[in-house]
């Protein structure tokens, strides 16, 4: 069965973006960027894949992406951010999306359960915090890119009801720029 995987960058204080959706404060270096392009090429948006040399890289882990409206609208000039994946945007307020994207107005848990039953690679939960909070019962794995920076305020990694959910660390990579990538499996 396919898994729902929340693959996300997070600050030391638990924010995935600043109050205005900023994410450019996360440090990195060439070695880390190369690793991401090699390990998870499909998580790189289509419009920057050529710049990073992964335009022809096959999908290795994910073939489907699920995102909330805020994540979808990070760059309003980009209306089809993951053209190399099957895309779903969960929003009850978005008027319309690019024709290549399936707009989901309600029941994201039902959608995820249906997607998990289909053949294919895993499902990439791209963001944001509110959607992750709503989908927490269905998240099978976390891949957290932890950056050595305090944001102070912003969009939390999980924004939802109090529901303690156990995960077990399974793997960890570290990089000279101070980033740790940790895989967690649901207990």
UniProtKB/TrEMBL annotation:
InterPro entries: DHFR-like_dom_sf (IPR024072), RibDG_C (IPR002734), Riboflavin_Biosynth_HTPR (IPR050765). Residues 3-179 form the Bacterial bifunctional deaminase-reductase C-terminal domain. It comes from the Bacteria. It holds the Pfam family RibD_C. PANTHER family: 2,5-DIAMINO-6-RIBOSYLAMINO-4(3H)-PYRIMIDINONE 5'-PHOSPHATE REDUCTASE, DIHYDROFOLATE REDUCTASE FAMILY PROTEIN (AFU_ORTHOLOGUE AFUA_8G06820). This is Dihydrofolate reductase. It comes from Kibdelosporangium banguiense. The lineage of its organism: Bacteria, Bacillati, Actinomycetota, Actinomycetes, Pseudonocardiales.
């Amino acid at each position: 069965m396919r898994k729902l995987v929340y693959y996300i960058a997070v600050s030391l204080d638990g924010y995935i973006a600043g109050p205005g959706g900023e994410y450019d404060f996360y440090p990195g270096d060439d070695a880390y960027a190369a690793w991401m392009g090699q390990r998870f090429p499909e998580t790189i948006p289509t419009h920057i894949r050529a710049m990073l040399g992964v335009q022809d890289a096959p999908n290795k882990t994910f073939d489907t992406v699920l995102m909330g409206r805020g994540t979808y609208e990070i760059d309003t000039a980009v209306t089809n951010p993951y053209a190399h994946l099957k895309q779903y945007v969960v929003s009850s307020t978005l008027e319309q999306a690019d024709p290549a994207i399936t707009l989901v107005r309600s029941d994201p848990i039902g959608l995820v359960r249906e997607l998990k039953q289909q053949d294919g690679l895993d499902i990439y939960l791209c963001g944001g915090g509110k959607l992750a909070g709503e989908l927490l019962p269905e998240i099978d794995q976390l891949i957290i890119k932890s950056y050595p920076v305090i944001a102070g305020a912003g969009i939390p990694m999980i924004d939802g009801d109090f529901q303690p959910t156990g995960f077990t660390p399974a793997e960890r990579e570290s990089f000279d720029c101070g980033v740790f990538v940790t895989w967690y499996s649901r207990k």
